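Cross-posting from the modeling subforum.

Setting up a comparison between two proteins and wanted a second pair of eyes on the formatting. Protein 1 (sequence, then structure tokens):
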Amino acid sequence: MTADRPPLAEGVPDRLYGRRRGHPLRPRQQRLLDVTLPRLDLAAAQAADPLAAFGMPQAPLWLEVGFGGGEHALDQVAANPGVAYIASEVFENGLCSLLTRLVAEGEEATGALPPNLRLWPRDARHLLAVLPEGALDRLFLLFPDPWPKARHAKRRFVHPSLLPLAARALKPGGEWRIASDDPTYQAWVEEVMGAAADFVPASRETTRPPGWPGTRYEAKALREGRRPIYWIFRRRA
């Protein structure tokens, strides 16, 4: 078992995601992964004291699980310079999408990077398992893969077997923000979180609230006539 893959609870699926790469990477994208990503990578050994990796010992710590194209993460990082922000994504094309927005062509090794951003290009569950208890002030899960087939429900991040990991990592009163446009996942969130002992509902909106930057997945859903739901759940004190 490697440092970035600590053991998870019995019965938890080996992984929640599918493929790690879509179309073949272009040379620029490969340079971003080879040169720029290591400059932002939160090493597994740093996860036990994540704020030290930022040099921000008193900062709130936020984690986004599955940042997709990176729009929400980068907007939050820019709007909240005093927050230490970890953005997690395993899909290489998504990582490249975020990194492309950060550095110009030819500056992969030297371009300035946000000091309050670190990336976790691995399974976010393993990060939740090694973060200090109560480390997170806020957790984001925005438009995740709904895994709509019943036999794939165990792959959903919102799952009874995974709630203890999220609850352990969030401090009492910490926020878990979830958004989905998929009716199956929406019903699933309300069922699972409604029965969660460690979380209480704080809000439920059908229009994106202030402070929630948009994403390409939200825009696609709205174009196609699907209505997202935006939830905030709080970790019980």
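Protein 2 (same layout):
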Amino acid sequence: MPVNITVPELSSAAAAGKSLFDENCAACHGNNAAGSPDGPPLVHIIYEPGHHSDASFYLAVSQGVRQHHWTFGNMPAQPHVSEKDVALIIEYVRELQAANGIR
């Protein structure tokens, strides 16, 4: 299921977000948000900013998400990830998306 990802040179905020992503998200969403057998890729047109705004990422982390685009099951809330950390993770994901033509 993983997709091929081009990883750009990251801003300092996105680099901090990458570390947080690796620690908190990669187990399901894969290295570089490419997806895994346990969760969908976030570098995918479904998660473009016009369809899934930054607010949707905050809600997913704070409240969890019911399965709706994929067949991986529901995403549980991640209460151990702070809003500040989510902001940095979003920076990372959005830079990956932009580098891969998702704007």
